[in-house]
Amino acid sequence: xxxxxxxxxxxxIATFTLSAIVLAEEEPKEALSPNxxxxxxxxxxxxxxxxxxxxxxxxxxxxxxxxxxVIIQLMPAPFSQGWVHNIKLLAREGWYDGISVNRxxxxxxxxxxxxxxxxxxxxxxxxxxxxxxxxxxxxxxxNDEPLKNLLTTTLxxxxxxxxxxxxxxxxxxxxxxxxxxxxxxWWPVHCYGMVGVGRNLSPDTGSGAELYTVIGHAPRHLDRNxxxxxxxxxxxxxxxxxxRGKGELGFYAEDEFDKRTPILxxxxxxxxxxxxxxxxxxxYDYEYLSTESETFAKYAEARANxxxxxxxxxxxxADICNIPVPVRSAPNG
Amino acid sequence: xxxxxxxxxxxxIATFTLSAIVLAEEEPKEALSPNxxxxxxxxxxxxxxxxxxxxxxxxxxxxxxxxxxVIIQLMPAPFSQGWVHNIKLLAREGWYDGISVNRxxxxxxxxxxxxxxxxxxxxxxxxxxxxxxxxxxxxxxxNDEPLKNLLTTTLxxxxxxxxxxxxxxxxxxxxxxxxxxxxxxWWPVHCYGMVGVGRNLSPDTGSGAELYTVIGHAPRHLDRNxxxxxxxxxxxxxxxxxxRGKGELGFYAEDEFDKRTPILxxxxxxxxxxxxxxxxxxxYDYEYLSTESETFAKYAEARANxxxxxxxxxxxxADICNIPVPVRSAPNG
Lengths: 333, 333
Description:
Two copies of one chain form a homodimer. Chain A has seven helices and 16 strands. Chain A is α+β, with helices and mostly antiparallel strands. The radius of gyration of chain A is 22 Å and the shape is globular. At the A-B interface, helix 5 of A face helix 5 of B. Chains A, B: This is peptidylprolyl isomerase. Chains A, B: Its EC number is 5.2.1.8. Chains A, B: Pfam families: Pro_isomerase (PF00160).
């Protein structure tokens, strides 16, 4: 990919300022792609992700013996913290080790958990959940809809890049995440790669023992109906390319249980780094582009208005899930 | 799934009419899911898809020897007819037979064509294109942007279900397709499973020899920048679950050419049915739910406002790609 080192921005902003006139006397510059804009971000615009917020999920190796590691970034406060507490507890108790991917529904979700939980076709014994799990909304069970108050958060945000979207509400980016909002209420949205908490019918709110990730067009109708707890930041392809289940809702049917992918372990990255058996040089250094940075604003604008050479007509807008937050391995990581 | 045979609609429409009062005296009904609403559609609301508009793409069998057949519905007039002409010609000339899937980019597209075309890592010979292909926009090459006039269509449509979307334009359903519009101009949009024509930089408009389908969140920034020619109506999972390419843009890199999936054949369904070697009982009878039908309006409303038992809060809207057009095998097909 071409890199234009000087005036990377001026070339694609329609303006009649002095810099535009100067540019006109130089060679014509190609407008940068969103990825090229991100490459130009300064070191200070990247925000380190705490390893305490990262889950490392190891799937069984693929048919050729290649390892498959999926990295999940858990949401920081104030979102979904009760479920995040449970998930870290389950990871630290080793509860997830040995569960499997039991559901792969095309253009929808991949879901993993105890294959003997809530699966009428399995006759094995359920794994016992550890002590100390929070029951989210427990105090509100009487009103039959405990989730309603748990899935949104009151925040005061002053952001420029908030747009009315097709879901009757608005959406935008905040502290590294894609959010929806209405009045003073905010919530994470179901974009590709987001991770949520499986649940049964309300008033069940889900414990965190059953998790899923989005592998298709954003199922935004799930927003504010299920708890989102994070997103896959590496290795989503190991999940999205799994064979689809032929049972109802994409669960693997009884004659294809062998397609369930075993999950060897899910750990908090910070624990792996502190482990005595950690290999030398092990790191989990990831960072996201600050959604409050100047470069992010340019990137988001360019996602909505592609002017790089392939494009002949900028769209004039983009939905929130078509503006993913750039995440990378830290350059020295 | 539960099926409520009486009054399937009244239960989810907020109304104070007599029927609602009558319902109140009966057992409470659960609101229907969008799929349940579609199941209640009358026979007359389904529209048969001409087999002349269907492509049958046979991939090489999977690792276990299972056949993989992908059915593509080509767009009818007035959209993209020049490319559709080319694609049928290429299919009928047998030109596609023996090509392969060369690109699988996660959350984006699967692309198939001649592996030796436009792939710097391949040193094989390009397949020769047949005579009779149209060069779309040929007469307008002088203006450097021949696609601009070819990718939109002037139509007069009177539809209720058209909404402003995040792309600065409006969108809705028309004659079985998802469309975007602005003023009197209309165009197909890049939803999951849509099939488009690969091209090089403008003024190239693509011949139809290189095709792709969307396997992730709708890349709507491609709308009006590339020709869309149809959609996958069956077997998308054979494409969406293929291993992702490790090369640039998801192309299979030189050391993984063995991951390219061979395409045994692409044929027009009507030709297969008329073939002397057609197996007895072969059919390609598909139909879509009329987007102008009463049931479709209810279905679309329910996609935007889920009230079936799992949901606690209807979204209040949905983007066009989250309201796919129901397609099925004809019951007697």
